[in-house]
């Protein structure tokens, strides 16, 4: 998260009397008897804040109708819902820091009063026990956990990651998986191409399916895996695009698709297929694959890193 956003969060924390933790950017603490955590659910939209409380009403969790009625009544709040043992409200986006602080205070007051009035009790987010809990970062996300759950989650993660590291990458399996995945991507290029579109969607599908396929059958996705996937994506994107043209040629000249596929370069040379639009189309498809592939790779790497982050916010 950038510095300016973090500074604003630190201010928000002091305005609401809560604590601020700079590494995660989370605002946390006891508010009106409830342990609240305030954070952006999506880092790309840092000013859409979510406030969550690990609380439960024994026997009857928050209903959809209650959530709707509550958010209708309180203007700064977009939604309120319960996920497992976590009740959360989401605030509308507000760029003005003053207004955001006022909205957050108003929302926290309304939220915690509602929880009180409706018999919600503080609890652990994972096991639901009413043992004392602490705000933690577990597997990269902010959670309100009892000591046992924190330790268990951390141990499970350590076991999983050491198993993952021991696991050997099966490159042959990975290549097979990537090829199967890339076929889906190529099919998408052809299908959308036939409908007359060159869309970012087919690039995203090509990138996600190829890498997912490699990961599934290869056991894990290493740097070598990413390079292999990139080569497969390059080839399959080219093939998909050429097949798209071949289908149009086959329809126009009433030949079979294999003949049409082989004759594409000849048709370009003879200027029956316009070379400029053929190459422009190919470049566009490649750009879209890049648009799909880069965030996929970055997110995969980020998530792998995130999974191993565990610490207690208050210490
Ligand atoms: Zn617990």
Task: Characterize the structure shown.
The chain has helices at residues 3-16, 64-73, 97-117, 147-166, 171-194, 200-218, 223-253, 257-269, 275-306; strands at residues 19-21, 26-31, 34-40, 49-56, 77-83, 86-91, 121-122, 133-138, 141-146, 310-312. The longest helix is centred in the C-terminal third of the chain and has 32 residues, at 275-306. It has two domains: 3-158, Yope Regulator, Chain: A (2-Layer Sandwich); 171-306, no CATH class. It is elongated and about 80 Å long. With 315 residues, the chain is an alpha+beta fold. The structure holds zinc ion. Zinc ion is lined by residues 124, 126-127, 129, 145-146, 148-149.
- What ligands are attached or bound here? zinc ion
Overall mean pLDDT score?
A: 91
Shape: elongated
The CATH class name of the largest domain reads Alpha Beta
Topology:
Elements: H1 3-16, E1 19-21, E2 26-31, E3 34-40, E4 49-56, H2 64-73, E5 77-83, E6 86-91, H3 97-117, E7 121-122, E8 133-138, E9 141-146, H4 147-166, H5 171-194, H6 200-218, H7 223-253, H8 257-269, H9 275-306, E10 310-312
Antiparallel strand pairs: 1-2, 2-3, 3-4, 4-6, 4-7, 5-6, 8-9, 8-10
Helix pairs in contact: 1-3, 5-6, 5-7, 6-7, 6-9, 7-8, 7-9
The protein binds zinc ion.
């Amino acid at each position: 998260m950038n510095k300016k956003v973090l500074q604003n969060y630190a201010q928000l924390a002091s305005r609401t009397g809560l604590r601020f933790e700079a590494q995660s950017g989370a605002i946390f603490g006891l508010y009106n008897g409830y342990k609240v955590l305030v954070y952006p659910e999506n880092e790309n939209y840092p000013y859409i804040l979510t406030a969550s409380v690990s609380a439960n009403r024994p026997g009857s969790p928050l209903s959809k109708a209650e959530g709707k009625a509550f958010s209708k009544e309180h203007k700064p709040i977009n939604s309120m819902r319960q996920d497992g043992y976590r009740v959360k409200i989401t605030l509308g986006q507000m760029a003005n820091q003053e207004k955001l602080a006022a909205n957050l205070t108003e929302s926290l007051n309304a939220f915690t009063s509602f929880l009180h009035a409706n018999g919600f009790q503080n609890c652990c987010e994972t096991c639901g026990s009413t043992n004392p809990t602490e705000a933690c970062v577990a597997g990269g996300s902010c959670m309100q956990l009892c000591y046992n759950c924190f330790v268990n989650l951390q141990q499970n993660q350590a076991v999983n990651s050491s198993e993952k590291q021991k696991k050997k990458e099966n490159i042959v399996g990975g290549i097979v998986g990537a090829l199967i995945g890339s076929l889906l991507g190529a099919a998408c290029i052809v299908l959308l191409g036939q409908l007359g579109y060159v869309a970012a969607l087919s690039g995203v599908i090509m990138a996600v399916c190829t890498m997912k396929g490699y990961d599934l059958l290869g056991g894990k996705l290493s740097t070598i895996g990413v390079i292999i996937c990139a080569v497969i994506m390059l080839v399959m994107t080219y093939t998909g695009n050429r097949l798209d043209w071949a289908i149009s040629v086959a329809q126009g000249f009433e030949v079979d698709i294999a003949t049409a596929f082989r004759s594409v370069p000849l048709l370009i040379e003879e200027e029956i297929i316009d070379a400029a639009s053929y190459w422009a189309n190919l470049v566009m498809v490649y750009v879209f694959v890049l648009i799909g592939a880069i965030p996929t790779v970055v997110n995969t790497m980020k998530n792998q890193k995130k999974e191993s982050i565990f610490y207690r916010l208050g210490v």
